[in-house]
């Protein structure tokens, strides 16, 4: 498995997509809405950006795509995405990196806490 | 408003034709569904909601297309290069050469070294390094074979790998040590027969496992689509594995270089004929005869006067069957059985079911 550090730092949309999938598998549309919610409406992905990111993450092995059983007669089988073990590793590494940066920013300086 | 959303949905559907072909084949339906769900929600915010939704898509489109095409090009350039070098027409010379390389490498090098008496002057570490380099070279070609989705030439490599894996597992679980040098109190010949029967059983289990795994691994799915229509391809894989056992027959014969060099001839002819013949029965006959001839040459080498004497096990009239001769005959039978296991496997319900699902 590749070293999670090689994928860091993550771009914001990528980070939020992985974060969205950390809670379990989701369909494309659910990921879009979740990213918007998690980023407090700061990141609103277009369809193109979402699928560009999903195909890249699939190629990198950070997420997995699976067919989800739907009630009979509901049309074609839907696809869902879930975090792979490597993806979870990368997400954790990015969270640690961000926490580390934040803790450094909180070190009291001579003038007081930044 | 409904007319407007329908028009936007149609325009988006048409814009998908701008995306790379592989992306369209895999994601177009799904992307359209997600777009329509977003459209439905944006329609709740009225005309401006819909306009913002559509403009966001339009704004991102050029960069998304550029990224996707660049990635596609990078991927396909690498695949093209691999295909150019390693995917060849059935029955062509490059296909034969690639399929023959393990036979050439594993027989020619030891054969030439032994024949020219160079092997006596090669220090052990260098000998080991040479062996390691040969195995690494073949392993690399095997990986390339997997990357180009296991064409016919890669079958002998796959066979060697499957048999080595089975052998390693039997060693790790202690089955090999049980019979050799022998924790069980059985005559030597019975221990040998028992081990080879266990090996064959383990091989059947391993092949079933491989078929089961192939349903889940994209890289090997094409391999089993091929095998589905022609099980003799899996026999070709076992032919590669048999080569290792035949080479092992020369283990205790110093200076057998010429015999080793001659042994590779029927094996290479077998590869050539297998790749040329269309008929499955003829292919099986070719593989069977090639192995029999190769084993026959190894048997002749074992009958030469050596500086050690193999103990006599049986006598049939005046004919004395020594331990080494018996071992060769038994290994020959095992190699032939290995060739026919895949043909019999198609009658196992589990593998038939797997074939249907793969197909």
Topology:
The complex is a heterodimer of chains A (114) and B (359).
Chain A (H helix, E strand, L loop, with lengths): L11 H10 L6 H11 L8 H13 L3 E6 L9 E6 L1 H21 L9
Antiparallel strand pairs in A: 1-2
Helix pairs in contact in A: 1-2
Chain B lengths: L1 H14 L5 H23 L2 H41 L6 H23 L8 H24 L7 H18 L2 H8 L5 H27 L3 H12 L2 H17 L8 H20 L3 H24 L8 E5 L2 E4 H23 L3 H10 L1
Antiparallel strand pairs in B: 1-2
Helix pairs in contact in B: 1-2, 2-3, 4-10, 4-11, 6-8, 6-10, 7-8, 8-13, 8-14, 10-12, 10-13, 11-12, 12-13
Domain module tally of chain B: 2
Rounded to the nearest angstrom, the radius of gyration of chain A is 17 Å
Distance separating the two termini of chain A: 39 Å
Spatial sequence of strands, sheet with the most strands of chain A: 1-2
What class do helices, strands and sheet pairing of chain A give?
mainly alpha
The best one-word shape of chain B is elongated
Average pLDDT metric of chain A: 85
Greatest chain-chain contact: A-B, 19 and 22 residues
Strand order of the largest sheet of chain B: 1-2
Poorly predicted regions of chain A are none
Radius of gyration of chain B: 28 Å
**Topology order of chain B in helix (H) and strand (E) letters:** HHHHHHHHHHHHEEHH
How confident overall, as mean pLDDT of chain B? 83
Instruction: Please report which band the strand proportion of chain B falls in: under 5%, 5-15%, 15-25%, 25-35%, 35-45% or over 45%.
Output: under 5%
Determine the fraction of residues in helical runs of chain B and give it as a percent range.
Answer: over 70%
Tally of DSSP helical segments of chain A: 4
Oligomer: heterodimer
User: In percent, how helical is the residue content of chain A?
Assistant: 40-55%
Question: Main beta sheet of chain A, described?
Answer: 2 strands, antiparallel
H/E element string of chain A? HHHEEH
């Amino acid at each position: 498995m590749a070293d999670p550090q090689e994928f860091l730092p993550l771009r914001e949309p990528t980070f939020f997509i992985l974060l969205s999938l950390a809670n379990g598998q989701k369909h494309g549309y659910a990921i879009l809405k979740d990213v918007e919610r998690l980023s407090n409406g700061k990141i609103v992905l277009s369809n193109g950006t979402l699928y560009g990111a999903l195909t890249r993450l699939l190629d990198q092995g950070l997420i997995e795509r699976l067919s989800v059983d739907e009630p009979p007669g509901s049309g074609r089988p839907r696809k869902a995405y879930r975090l792979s073990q490597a993806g979870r590793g990368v997400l954790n590494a990015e969270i640690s990196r961000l926490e580390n940066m934040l803790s450094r920013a909180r070190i009291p300086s001579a003038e007081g806490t930044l | 408003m409904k007319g407007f959303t329908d028009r936007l949905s149609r325009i988006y559907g048409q814009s998908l034709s701008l995306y790379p072909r592989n992306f369209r084949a895999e994601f177009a339906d799904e992307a359209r569904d997600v777009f329509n769900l977003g459209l439905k929600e944006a329609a709740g915010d009225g005309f401006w909601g819909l306009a913002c939704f559509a403009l966001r898509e339009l704004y991102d489109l050029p960069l998304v297309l550029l990224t996707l095409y660049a990635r596609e090009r990078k991927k396909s350039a690498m695949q093209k290069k691999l295909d150019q070098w390693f995917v060849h027409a059935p029955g062509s010379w490059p296909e034969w050469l690639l399929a023959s390389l393990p036979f050439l490498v594993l027989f020619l090098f030891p054969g030439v070294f032994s024949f020219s008496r160079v092997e006596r002057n090669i220090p052990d570490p260098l000998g080991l390094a040479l062996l390691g380099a040969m195995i690494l070279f073949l392993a690399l070609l095997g990986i390339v074979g997997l990357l180009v989705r296991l064409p016919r030439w890669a079958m002998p490599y796959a066979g060697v790998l499957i048999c080595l894996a089975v052998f390693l597992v039997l060693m790790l679980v202690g089955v090999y040590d049980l019979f050799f040098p022998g924790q069980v109190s059985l005559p030597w010949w019975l221990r040998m027969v028992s081990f080879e029967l266990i090996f064959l059983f383990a091989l059947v289990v391993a092949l079933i496992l491989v078929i089961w795994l192939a349903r889940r691994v994209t890289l090997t799915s094409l391999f089993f689509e091929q095998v589905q229509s022609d099980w003799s391809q899996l026999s070709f894989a076992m032919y590669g594995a048999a080569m290792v056992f035949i080479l092992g027959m020369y283990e205790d014969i110093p200076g057998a270089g010429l015999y080793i060099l001659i042994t590779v001839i029927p094996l290479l002819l077998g590869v050539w004929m297998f790749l040329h013949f269309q008929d499955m029965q003829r292919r099986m006959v070719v593989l069977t005869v090639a192995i029999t001839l190769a084993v026959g040459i190894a048997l002749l080498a074992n009958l030469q006067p050596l500086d050690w004497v193999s103990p006599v096990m049986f006598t049939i009239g005046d004919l004395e069957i020594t331990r080494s001769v018996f071992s060769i005959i038994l290994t020959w039978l095992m190699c032939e059985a290995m060739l026919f296991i895949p043909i019999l496997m198609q009658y196992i319900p589990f593998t038939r079911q797997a074939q249907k699902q793969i197909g």
